[in-house]
Amino acid sequence: MGMNVGSDSGDDDAVLSEINTTPLVDVMLVLLIIFLITIPVVTTSIKVNLPKENNVIRETKPENVIISVNAAGGIYLYDTPVKDSNALIGRMKVFAVKTPQPEVQIRGDGKSDFESVGRVMYAVQRAGIVKVSFITEPQGN
To answer: Is the four-CA dihedral 50, 55, 60, 61 of positive or negative sign?
Structure first.
């Protein structure tokens, strides 16, 4: 940490093998001051009881209406095939007048055409059903 002044060896090109630690100490002191200032800010907070996460598995209720669309675009109300979307509208009007109105769950095959599922959604909407949901498979881990 010093200079060699007046060396007796006479070798002016000698390499100093000492490390100057003054800048390192300065940086460490600045970091220490920053941490001392910021730690109380992080640790002081208002105590709040956060809500707990609930992962509720959705169960099919008997009053839910299940419409399935297979890969070929065929429409099924529960397990009964439906001729077309006009026939589906007629059957959905029966459920639309019930109080409370049941929820319609659409199960579309992953390989089915989007148009098939869109026609089912449009038919359910035209029948006057308010609650519509899609049933999917959870992703495997």
So the answer is: negative
Backbone angles phi, psi at 75, to 5 degrees: -105, 135
Q: What is the pTM of this model?
A: 0.55
Do 71 and 112 form a contact (C-beta atoms < 8 A)?
yes
The arrangement of secondary structure in 65-134, i.e. its CATH architecture, is 2-Layer Sandwich (3.30)
Q: Say if residues 128 and 100 touch (Cβ distance below 8 Å).
A: no
pLDDT one-digit tens code per residue, 80-103: 999 988 999 999 999 889 888 889
Q: Which residues contact 121 (CB under 8 A, 6 or more apart)?
A: 106, 132
**In the chain, where are the structural domains located?**
65-134
DSSP 68: E
